[in-house]
Amino acid sequence: MSECCIATYxxxxxxxxxxxxxxxxxxxxxxxxxxxxxxxxxxxxxxxLGQVVSVDVHEEGERYADIRIAYPDINFSKDIAxxxxxxxxxxSMDGRIKLLDIEFSESFAAAFSGPKFGIEGVRxxxxxxxxxxxxxxxxxxxxxxLPELREQFYQQALGGVDLIKDDEILFExxxxxxxxxxxxxxxxxxxxxxxxxxxxxxxxxxxxxxFKLKEQAQRAIDAGANALLFNVLAYGFDALAELAADPxxxxxxxxxxxxxxxxxxxxxxxxxxxxxxGKLMRLAGADLVLFPSPYGSVVMPREENLAIDAALKSPxxxxxxxxxxxxxxxxxxxxxxxxxxxxxxxxxxxxxxHGHPMGTAAGGRAFRQAIDAxxxxxxxxEAAQEHEELSTAIExxxxxx
Length: 401
Ligand code: 1AE
Fold this sequence. Notes:
Elements: E1 4-12, H1 18-28, H2 39-45, E2 51-58, E3 64-72, H3 80-88, E4 97-103, H4 106-110, H5 118-126, E5 133-137, H6 146-158, E6 163-165, H7 178-196, E7 201-206, H8 213-222, E8 227-231, H9 232-235, H10 237-245, E9 253-256, E10 270-271, H11 273-284, E11 288-292, H12 302-313, E12 322-326, H13 334-341, E13 346-349, H14 351-354, H15 360-376, H16 380-384, H17 388-397
Parallel strand pairs: 4-10, 5-6, 5-13, 6-7, 7-8, 8-9, 9-11, 11-12
Antiparallel strand pairs: 1-3, 1-4, 2-3
């Protein structure tokens, strides 16, 4: 058989013949009909025909089957839209079925350049090798003018964060258009660097009409942006892939998971999180991928988090991407984050930094103190005895023991 991408589905049904269903999908999503074709036509269509690879039926509890189907590469072009429409286009609306995984063929994967920087490249840009990174999120961005955003940025930078990202809901607006915002924030970054000695990446939110994204990215980069934030699922994976493959867009891209909840949480519909936020994000070229953690305000089960992390970091053709477990993160969660994700992780917080009772800069310092304590093998409570910022954060938000 020629090169194929293999899709795995979980299909729920009380009484269906799953083998027959699988055959129906393999034929229906490729040549459309098979048995009715005359022999000559069959021969001609054979190279396009989907093949059932396996059917694994589970009868205990709710009845379901995990079905694997191979789709010949010659049926679709080498872009993520064609692949997804082939394997789960109409099928996504046809009963209780969830797309769990796709194994990309060698030549399909080879059509994508993947992350331009990856974990290694981002670390190199920052000059930080020996600890998890810390990212902070602008909070309260709408309605603020440039001096207000600049001050907010400066305070975050003073706290010792490695990356600062725009809030994903900050779009082009007359008060803080992207070029002016980037100039103001990068000037604040330089001012803070004089005090902290620390490099910093600012991920400006890339927004606007889809066909103008590259132009917009270029303007941000020309203004000094050294990273970008991108709402990948709103624009589509191929928009990210185009940006990541463009040599002129020579900065890391952080993928925001906005809209992901419309795809992954149901057990019997949608696209599984490890595929959506792991495999596909890495293939499309995200250097950093945000997703809800198991412990914060918006949560995702721990096993799904770990499977995303594995998809982003496992050895493979493309550079690895940073996991950025997010939403409701505070310093008391740092031990759990490092336990689950190891050192190759970005600790990311908005409210957990700006909401610190001693202010935004202290919020950043509390996180850095927590990270340093965990790396040194010191308990947070013990470290908190030496650091007022950390002890105040633990008093405010507690800690996961
Ligand atoms: C899963 C995305 C998290 C995010 O974008 C965000 O803004 C989090 O903010 P906090 O840390 O919950 O305030």
